[in-house]
Amino acid sequence: MTDPEIRAAFLAALSDVAPDIDPATVGGGDHIQDDLELDSMDVLNLVATLHKALGVDIPEADYPQIATLDLAARYLARRLAS
Fold it and tell me: What is the CATH number of the domain that holds 12?
């Protein structure tokens, strides 16, 4: 997958979990909990949605690596490549 495809998949998953968030307004550095106000259940749902969409397992220890769009894009690209 290309970087734009990964970012679109992340934003789609984020939109599924938090439909009140407009993906067009999410910046690369916006923190999903601090800035976008997802709670811990939302983060779990985001991880599950990403797994379903991309087939990527994200262990709890790696959650900080998907805390922003930019971080998530890099992390997911590495996981998809392996």
Answer: 1.10.1200.10
Q: What is the domain extent for residue 13? A: 3-20+27-81
pLDDT at position 82 over 90: no
- Please give the pLDDT value at position 37: 96
Per-residue 3-state assignment (H helix, E strand, C coil) for the chain: CCHHHHHHHHHHHHHHHCCCCCHHHCCCCCCCCCCCCCCHHHHHHHHHHHHHHHCCCCCHHHHHHHCCHHHHHHHHHHHHHC
pTM of the model: 0.94
d(CA 10, CA 50): 7
Tell me, what's the pLDDT at 79? 96
How many domains would you assign to the chain?
A: 1
Distance CA 77, CA 34 (A): 24
